[in-house]
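ingest -> validate -> predict -> emit
validate: passed (alphabet ok, no gaps, 171 aa)
predict: started
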Amino acid sequence: MSRSAAGSSPVPPVTRAATRAATRAATRAATTGRATRQRGALAALLETQDDFRSAQELHTLLTASGKRVGLATVYRTLAALVEAGQVDVLRSTSGEARYRRCSPVHHHHLICRVCGRTLEVAAPGIETWAAAVAAAEGFTEMTHTLEVHGICPQCRSRAEQDRAADIRTGS
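emit:
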């Protein structure tokens, strides 16, 4: 389970069986009721991916595994899964959309600017703040997303080791 730096509540774990069932249901619901072999292959691939991937990367993985799926089908299916709330989409620093099947409960992301590592975190304080701000301004039916970008401990450690090596060698 992931926790935020402030120690907020963890995002509850999801069992593999529940995730598979959600994948099947989401794929049916998100693809206009027409389940195809290609859409099923993409949904199955998303279950195996821990990192956010671009549509092109997912298409390449599908074709490399022998699946005949058009890139347009990948884009359409991803858009439908995002719309159905079954897949999260983040924008990379270059603006490219990247996709991953995430926890079905509301969460936020901590994203490393160096390696792209992404952690799901719950943030009850943010939920309370966002609801209060919306209410104070008269907004209803509020939704929000939060992405916190920084440098993960592994990348920070590597950078510190590189700096130390540069100092030792006089680079």
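The beta strands are 88-91, 97-100, 108-112, 118-121, 147-150.
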